[in-house]
């Protein structure tokens, strides 16, 4: 055996970066294996239109404890998008418009009804085992249907969630209830944490700051194809057929990529089933550069009823307007088809002229194979806690299997911190 690392961390997204940083800072020898030619995973600050944009995970919040701790530690601040008073919402076949207050007047009673039991179902949102697992069997669609809404009301409600939803049928309601419980039962609070505050300098800056404190050996462009635990140590085999040995492994990969990796011994059946059924979110984000100064607005359309389902003016750039768009179904529109993007935006604001677009297709990207994580019914309280337990010398981390904060950068970081702590304990015990 060439070298035996204390820990091999697989995947240099926010979960893997933090796990590798924490363990290497404790003096353990760590190798961080990453398939791409960059760190950050589903966070991706890149240059487009001559400026820096976030094509993946973006918004963070001071109520997200782990990320806020890291931002403070590295003296990085956050900033909001442009203030917008104008709202457009597609409901019952028509586009309606008004102030944001008008929109909230229509939405508030519906959303409050939808999440009325958030705190009682998740009294301790950080501890899902304290929650009834019945509610975890419900899909978003089951819950919406149970409210007996008119077509207009249902579209308002579905439109408000469209920035998080690919499929109301495949995504469970429990993750939404847990998130809302985490913001004291206030759904507006939850949506603010999910979709508002940008990191100064981008997620790239935060990832670089955390990496600068790490002494882990980073190996980019090193995709892993198998992980085998023989009880004494773990062998990680790369696609280039190189064997890397470590006492412990932290697998911090998107759940949709795990089917491509052979893991031995086999994982418990419910975990295999969760991996096999995949994270259902196949959504995308498109940044649009629109000609001239467009009045700031927010727009909402239910998933499946417009190729662009949530749009918001974020900022100005060289006399033009930058609009962030969420497409619930990435396959419903080609991001580089300016005509199609313009048509989808003109549904709300007829005078919009698209100058340029920027996007990343996370669904067809082999190293993500999907968007942000969202549990299918049953998995939040069922297979995910089981997957977070240690499996011999293999530990799992990543936002897709997080408890509180799943689907967010926060969830990724929490799982990274926890996996690092558990591995450090095992190493300290001489295992
Ligand atoms: C379009 C979009 C918008 C989002 N918006 C937000 C938001 O505003 N706020 C928010 O908090 N969250 C948002 N998210 C979610 C957030 O980005 C993710 O939850 C989080 O970044 C996931 O981190 P992770 O470390 O768990 O996984 P990842 O970031 O996916 O990291 C996993 C790493 O593993 C690597 N990898 C994959 N396969 C292999 C392999 N075989 N071998 C080696 N390496 C491999 C990948 O390249 C990647 O670097 C968004 C996500 C998307 C896609």
Mean pLDDT: 97
- What CATH calls the topology of the domain at 4-42 and 202-278 and 368-429 is FAD/NAD(P)-binding domain
The CATH homologous superfamily of the domain at 4-42 and 202-278 and 368-429 is called FAD/NAD(P)-binding domain
- How would you characterize the largest beta sheet? 8 strands, mixed
Helix content: 25-40%
User: What structural category do the secondary elements indicate?
Assistant: alpha/beta
Q: Which CATH architecture of the domain at 4-42 and 202-278 and 368-429?
A: 3-Layer(bba) Sandwich
Q: What's the overall geometry? A: globular
Q: Terminal Cα separation, in Å?
A: 18 Å
Low-pLDDT parts are: none
Listed once per kind, the bound small molecules are: flavin-adenine dinucleotide
The helix tally amounts to 13
Rg, rounded, reads 22 Å
CATH class of the domain at 4-42 and 202-278 and 368-429: Alpha Beta
Estimated share of beta-strand residues: 15-25%
Beta strand count: 19
What does this structure look like?
The chain has about 425 residues and is α/β, with parallel strands linked by helices. Among the domains are: about 5-40 and about 200-280 and about 370-430, FAD/NAD(P)-binding domain; about 100-185. About 30% of the residues lie in helices and about 25% in strands. The protein contains 13 helices and 19 strands. The protein has helices at about 15-25, 65-75, 100-115, 120, 140-145, 150-160, 175-180, 185-195, 200-210, 270-275, 340-345, 385-390, 410-430; strands at about 5-10, 30-35, 45-50, 50-55, 80, 85-90, 95-100, 200, 215-220, 225-230, 235-240, 245-250, 260-265, 285-290, 295-300, 310-315, 320-325, 355-360, 395. The strands form 4 sheets. Strands 1, 2, 9, 10, 11, 12, 13 and 19 form an 8-stranded mixed beta sheet that branches. A 7-stranded mixed beta sheet has the order 7-6-15-16-17-14-18. β16 (about 310-315) and β17 form a beta hairpin. α1 (about 15-25) packs parallel to α13. The longest helix has 20 residues, at about 410-430. The mean pLDDT is about 95. The chain binds flavin-adenine dinucleotide (FAD). Flavin-adenine dinucleotide binds near residues 12, 368 and 398.
């Amino acid at each position: 055996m060439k070298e035996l690392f204390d820990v091999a961390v697989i995947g240099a997204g926010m979960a893997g970066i933090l796990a590798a940083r924490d363990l290497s800072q404790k003096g353990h020898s760590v190798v961080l294996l990453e398939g791409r030619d960059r760190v950050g995973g589903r966070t991706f600050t890149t240059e487009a239109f001559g400026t820096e944009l976030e094509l993946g995970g973006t918004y963070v919040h001071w109520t997200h404890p782990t990320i806020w701790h890291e931002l403070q530690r590295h003296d990085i601040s956050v900033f909001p998008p442009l203030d917008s008073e104008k709202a457009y919402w597609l409901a019952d076949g028509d586009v309606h418009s008004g102030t944001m207050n008008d929109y909230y007047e229509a939405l508030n009673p519906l959303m409050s009804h939808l999440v009325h039991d958030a705190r009682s179902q998740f009294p301790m949102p950080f501890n899902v085992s304290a929650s009834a697992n019945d509610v975890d069997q419900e899909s978003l669609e089951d819950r919406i249907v149970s409210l007996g809404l008119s077509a207009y009301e249902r579209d308002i409600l579905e439109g408000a969630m469209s920035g998080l939803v690919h499929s109301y049928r495949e995504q469970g309601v429990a993750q939404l209830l847990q998130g809302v419980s985490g913001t004291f039962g206030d759904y507006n609070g939850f949506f603010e944490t999910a979709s508002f505050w940008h990191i100064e300098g981008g997620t790239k800056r935060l990832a670089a700051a955390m990496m600068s404190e790490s002494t882990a050996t980073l190996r980019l462009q090193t995709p892993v194809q198998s992980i085998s635990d023989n009880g004494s140590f773990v062998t990680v085999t790369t696609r280039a057929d190189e064997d890397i040995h470590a006492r412990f492994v932290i697998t911090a990969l998107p759940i949709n990529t795990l089917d491509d990796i052979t893991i031995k011994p086999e994982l418990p059946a419910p975990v295999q089933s969760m991996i096999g059924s995949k994270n259902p979110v196949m959504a995308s984000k498109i940044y649009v550069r629109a000609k001239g100064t467009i009045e700031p607005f927010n727009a909402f359309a239910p998933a499946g009823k417009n190729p662009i389902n949530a749009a918001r003016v974020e900022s100005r750039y060289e006399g033009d307007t930058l609009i962030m768009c969420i497409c619930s179904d990435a396959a419903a529109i080609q991001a580089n088809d300016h005509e199609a993007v313009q048509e989808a935006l003109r549904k709300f604001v007829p005078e919009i002229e698209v100058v340029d677009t920027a996007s990343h297709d996370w669904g067809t990207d082999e190293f993500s194979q999907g968007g942000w994580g969202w549990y299918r019914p049953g998995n939040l309280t069922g297979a995910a806690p089981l997957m977070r337990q240690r499996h011999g010398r293999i530990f799992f981390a990543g936002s897709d299997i997080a408890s509180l904060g799943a689907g967010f950068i926060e969830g990724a970081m929490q799982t990274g911190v926890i996996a690092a702590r558990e591995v450090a304990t095992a190493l300290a015990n001489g295992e």
